[in-house]
Amino acid sequence: AVVHESASAATAPNYTDITANSSVNSVAQFTRNTSQERWNHSIFDISWGKLETYQMLDKLGDGSYSEVFLGINKLDNESCVVKILQPVAMRRVKREIKILQELSGGPNIVSLIDVVRDNRNKTPSLVFEYVNNTNHKTLYPQLSDFDVRYYILNLLKALSFSHSKGIMHRDIKPYNVMIDHHNRKLRLIDWGLADFYDENRAYGTGVGSRYWRAPELLVGYDGYDYSADLWSVGCMLAGMVFQREPFFRGKHDDVDQLLTIARVLGTEGLFKYLHEYDIELDEAFDHVKGWYQTERWASFVTPQNRHLVSEDAIDLIGKLLRYNHKVSASTKQVVIEHTIQVDLTRKRIDRRLRKL
Ligand SMILES: Brc1nc2nc[nH]c2c(Br)c1Br
Asked: What is the model's pTM?
């Protein structure tokens, strides 16, 4: 790999080499790389592509530690997405690349095409397949009952694969689920907060995005596992079925987010859960002593969302949105059950279409 690194550094006609254009510089660059790279052991096994292969076009969005652009590969004119990471993200980018490589080829996992580096500022960029995504605020109101089942099933397939590889995504939300509705293609993106699950490890609970964060994260329980992802899927499914996005919209902090959840799931279940896991709510939660009953899911049905509500949608929501993450079904179990529902629905639709 060292030879490879020096070879690419010496031969890659990037901006630094062209302007410097001196052997001393490329040797210095090699030396700097080796000493710097020795520290990032895993960067050794990356064969860096060339940033100038890609032409940046529109900016698509801002990630946690990155800017994301629509790009064109100049060699084959293929569209792509270039995620330029901030230098601070160096440590995390190794983990993100390792996870993307580990999940490469999995169902509905976004494909990492290339890893390039701007030799001027050492900032790495990740190049992904392009997905012609429609913003969820526009798309979700257009989805039929079957579409919602189909896309949730495909999201669960991506998660089931990731969990089977021992990887938690930890930031499931509509912004990280790219959907090309015309081609009925879904891709789970932004594995920047993902991590490998280890039952003996405690994890940071400040991960994810508030509206989709599981109760265990909100109360600071650091022994969480894959089921934190399933809570987030539950929030997405409830948001899509009841046409209320986000479904749990806390106002300003984790306490308020937990209150918003308790208004639906009830406080009885919350205090039972906290007691069971001996989780002490810090003093900030003291005013949570209000009392909320458990709402019936049917109470969220409106004339606008009635066409999306069904027994099995509510059944699946009930399975995913539970305080007690330890009793929530495993991802694989949920996928199997949900697959059956989707297939049955497809058969019902086919039968109806044949009668027309
Ligand atoms: Br990866 C990836 N990140 C994105 N951020 C905004 N749009 C994005 C798309 Br499309 C992809 Br693909």
From this structure: 0.84
